[in-house]
Amino acid sequence: MPDELSIYQSFRKARRKRVKRFGKKLTRGLSGFFARQSLVPDVPIHDNRSYPFLERFVDNWPTIHSEVMGILKHREAIPFFQQVSSDQSRIARGNNWRTFILFGFGQKVPRNCKYAPVTTALLETVPNLQSAWFSILAPGYHIPAHRGVTKGILRAHLGLIIPKEAAKCRMRVSDLIQSWWPGELFVFDDTYEHEIWNDTDEERVILIFDFVRPMRYWGGAVNSGFLQLLKLTAYYQEPKRNLKIFEDRFESAVRRAEKNNEI
């Protein structure tokens, strides 16, 4: 007979599947409502002029680039995406996609943020910032087609370290193709199906950050409630627990490197 632990684990797994199914139905139902409540167009890729705060990132991108270069000196201590969140295991496989997280669901990851102080200060000026991280994609990797969780959030990408053959490192959002360029930024709605190819032999590194979609009062109120509900689920709680482990691991790697340099 199965022991109590295996029964509990099976129960948790089944419960998580039920919650995910319910969540998908809920987000599909809210998608149309958020689109109607939106103060910006419901399109795959947005006009940067709708978000004036983005200019600060473009103006300061060399400093952001310098900070991520310092972090990458300890790349082996940077976790793979699926290590932080098992929900990403379908799109993040093997040793191909590392993430250095600075903010998660509006909460600062303080020990990570101290390695990117200027980037952190800029992120803190973003209205209703939700999440932010450095995304490090290996050469030759393809992120399969997928959709984001909610239309209540928009996503920005800032190019930092981009392969020389930039056209071969690209993203499809709906039926639009977008490449990254150093120091250039774009915003998109990740509830549109999107996928990514890095068909080069070089690494791609960008800053990703999410912020709340500008909406009318009732759209904003419902979205706020939905995001609070999301924080109660394993989708948020599991990465939150895992991040503490990876903060420790990264700090230890930095201390070892500093100690070795002193010898």
Question: What can you see in these coordinates?
Answer:
- This protein is α+β, with helices and mostly antiparallel strands and 263 residues long.
- The chain has a single domain (41-213, 225-262), classed as B-lactam Antibiotic, Isopenicillin N Synthase, Chain (Jelly Rolls, Sandwich), CATH 2.60.120.330.
- The protein is 41% helix and 24% strand.
- The chain contains eight helices and eleven strands.
- The protein has helices at residues 4-37, 55-59, 61-72, 81-84, 110-113, 117-123, 217-230, 234-262; strands at residues 45-46, 97-104, 107-108, 129-137, 142-146, 153-161, 169-173, 176-179, 185-188, 194-198, 204-212.
- The strands form two sheets. Strands 1-9-6-11-4-2-3 form a seven-stranded antiparallel sheet. A four-stranded antiparallel sheet has the order 5-10-7-8, with no helix packed on it.
- A hairpin with a 2-residue loop joins strand 7 (169-173) and strand 8 (176-179).
- Helix 1 packs antiparallel against helix 7 (217-230).
- The longest helix has 34 residues, at 4-37.
